[in-house]
Structures are given as structure tokens and as C-alpha cells.
Amino acid sequence: MNAGDGLQVLRNRTFDEIAVGDSAGIERTLTQADIQLFAILSGDVNPQHVDPAFAAASRFHGVIAHGMWGGALISAVLGTRLPGPGTVYLDQSLHFHGPVRLGDRLAIAVTVISKDSASRRVTLACSCINQDGTTVIEGEARVIAPTEHIERARTTLPEIRLDVAGHDGLERLLAHVAPLEPVRVAVVHPCDAPSLSAALDARDAGLIVPVLVGPRARIEALAAAQGLDLSGIALDDVAHSHAAAARAVELAAGGEVEALMKGSLHTDELMAAVVASAGGLRTKRRVSHCFVLQTPHYPRPFIVTDAAINLAPTLEQKADIVRNAIDLAHVIGVAEPRVAILAAVETVSPLMPATLDAAALCKMADRGQIAGGVLDGPLAFDNAVSPAAARTKGIVSPVAGQADVLVVPDLESGNMLAKQLMYMGEAASAGIVMGAKVPVILTSRADSHEARIASCAIALMLAHRYREAPP
């Protein structure tokens, strides 16, 4: 047999080739997609498995796998490894000793404990052991072993993708904000097709009433070239992008619009106008950017901050970044967000300034200087989002493994993290600037149409909150 051939070919063991003590196994890490697929196939939509909010308040403090998910993995070992193809399943006993949590890695093993030659029946001990060495499932299986050799190429299964983070997530977000009346938004210098069409699409979705701020002739020419209808839309004519940013800030400071939306100008140009002392939009807070992300590989939406504005924030600036993220989490429905202060390690080291800042931020929260959320750090990324990784490191924390907010050490690490999640982790995204008197919808030229619409929906929620509680 060639090296690695077992990954491509299924072979069985006949009854005569099997000896007491023989064993086989596989390993598998539980993902959110595993739980959802099992729920779809079985119809078991117990909220303990599929509703993160319900599960968080349960005795298990989080989502756990269906018990029979582990049973199905035992069946996979019996049907593909020992005895393998041709096996007839007779009965199975299972005892469930502990929960299987998201991120847990199970070693699934079967071991032959007896044979009956007259009936070709084989009894096997079965177990599922997690990464901590804890047996979570055990039992016995009885099978009829095959008498003939079977060797076949392993079937390639179709790839199944659950749209947890895509259009379904956007549809749920739009349904959530549907009762809110649209707000007037200054769309700053919408002089390329993506930004102009996004503004019109957000209008059509009932999210915003756009006020286009930029060179009239250029915008109208673009609309004509793209087949976009500007009838009924206010257009504030200014000469260039710098003037558009200043005029949009003036409109917001005067209460004529309730949010700003970046068009085709550079982020620095827009934000310079927003934070200018004379602009009237500054608050006592440092402004910061929040990515709201949802990926099929994590059970809840979460925030990454700051990945777009503050290059190398000081401790004081990080405190405002945390406060802004907590405020946004409250608006999107997280009553007490769990905030993970990220670093490369989970221990405090004088040689790593990010770990010192993390420890200081947590102490500030303990003293009431940062309120509204639960902070912990420093936490490495894996410990912040993976319960299994946190348990392996012996981290006992209300935040570890279930963070709602990820606070990065600097812009570069945050920008890389967010874009890796979007492009390789299938994350849907929305981008918003917090800390000013109005929300600022800040999207990239490379952002998808869905990301732009989702950003407008979040800005709509913020604008309505600011009517009741101005920042």
C-alpha cells in the first residue's frame, strides 16, 4: 500500500482477520457547521444546540453537540475502519458522561473485545475522548463482520456550505431594523459606481434617505453611465472631495443629517473633517472603527476593533476604543458584551506592551472606569474564541472562548485579522465609526454590496439610539 493510500481507499477487515484487542479510530473537531448540519438532518432543534443565547444561560454555559453526533462518529469508524465496508450494525449502547462543546477535539475509538465464530458477530468497546483526556461518551457495539474483502475508492462527498454569515444574516439584520424609519445620511463624494449604487440600494431597502454631497456634474454623469435614477434625491453640489467632507460634517453638525457615509474619497480625508475641532462632531471620546463580523465558524456575531483608524493607540485611546465597542454591542443587542483584549500570549510580560495594556484595561474595568461589559486579557486569539483552547491552557474566564468583542493591539494586526476572517473565514462584515456625534459608515472600495447595506443597517440603529441618548 502506498503512503497515504488509506486516505483515498476504503478497505475492510474480514471476520477471520479480526483479533480481540484490534482497534481503530478517527479524530474530529466539533464546529458550528457540524451542529447545524446534524440539526437539519435529525430535525432536533433543541435550543441547547442551536440557540447561543439560550445555551449561554443553561447549565452548560454554551452550545453543545447533540449526543448522537458522537454516536454517528462511532458509526463512521465501524463502517469505514473496523470492520469497515460490509459491516452490518446490530446494536449499540452509549453512555454520555459529559458535554461536547464547540472546538472540542474528540478521539473516537473502537476496540474488539469479543468474537463469535458461529454468527460472525463482533463486539467492540466504543469511546469518544476529548482533548483533555476526558471520556465524554462510551459504550459497546455489536456488528456482523464481513467475510469477503472489499476495497473501493473513497467517495468524494459534495461540499456543503451553510449560509450562516451571508445573505441569511443580512436578511435577518434587515428584518430587525425594518420597524425603524430611515434616516437622512450625507453620502460623501459618491463618485464611483459602488458607492453611488450602494447609497441608492440602501435607500431602496428603507434604511437611509441619501443626501449626495459632491460635484453635481460628475455624479450625474456617473449615474447616467450606470443607468441609475437620481430623481427625488437631494444633491449638494461642491467642487471636490475635500469640500464634500467639510460640507457633510456641516450638515451633520447642524442636524440636517443623522449619519455620514463614505463615498469614493480616502478615509483619512473624511475622518480629518469629522474630528476637526471646528467641525462640531467631536465628543470626549476618541473615535474608533468597529467591524461587525459573522462567520459560520463562530456561534455569534462579534466585533473587531480598531482596524481602520487608530494606528498605534495608547492605553487611554484603547480605553475609548473599548468603550465605543461596548456601546455598539449594546445597540446590536448584546446586553453585557464579553470583551477580549488580544495579544500574542495570555500572560503579562514587560517585554510585550500589548499585554501590559490589556492588564491595565481590565483593572480599569474593575475600578469602574470602563463599564457595560466584562473584560479579560491579555488573551491570545485562540483562547478568546475557542473554549477548547482556553481549557487546554487552563484559563478560567467568563470571556475566554466566547468573546463578543476582540480588541486588537494596533491597526495593522486588526486590519489583517478582519480581512483574513472575511476572505478566508467566510465572514460577513459591516463597518462603522464610533465616538463622534453621528455614526460614520466607513466601507472599503473592495467591500461587497452586502457589507455596505449591513453597515447602513447598523448606522440606522445607532442613529435612532443617538436620538434618545446622544453620545
Q: Describe it for me?
A:
The chain is α/β, with parallel strands linked by helices and 471 residues long. Helix content is 35%, strand content 23%. It has 15 helices and 18 strands. The strands form three sheets. An eleven-stranded mixed sheet has the order 10-9-8-11-18-17-12-13-16-14-15, with helices on both faces. Strand 17 and strand 18 (440-441) form a beta hairpin. Helix 6 (193-204) packs across helix 15 (449-468). The radius of gyration is 27 Å and the shape is elongated. Residues 1-6 and 163-167 have low confidence and may be disordered.
Return the CATH topology of the largest domain.
Isopropylmalate Dehydrogenase
Instruction: Report the sheet with the most strands, covering strand number, pairing sense and barrel closure.
Output: 11 strands, mixed
Instruction: Please give the radius of gyration in angstroms.
Output: 27 Å
Poorly predicted spans: 1-6, 163-167
Q: How many domain units? A: 2
Q: Could you report the average pLDDT, rounded to the nearest whole number?
A: 91
Count all strands and give the number: 18
DSSP summary: helix tally: 15
SS strand fraction: 15-25%
Which CATH class of the largest domain? Alpha Beta
From the spread of the alpha carbons, the general shape counts as: elongated
CATH architectural type of the largest domain? 3-Layer(aba) Sandwich
Indicate the percent of residues in helices: 25-40%
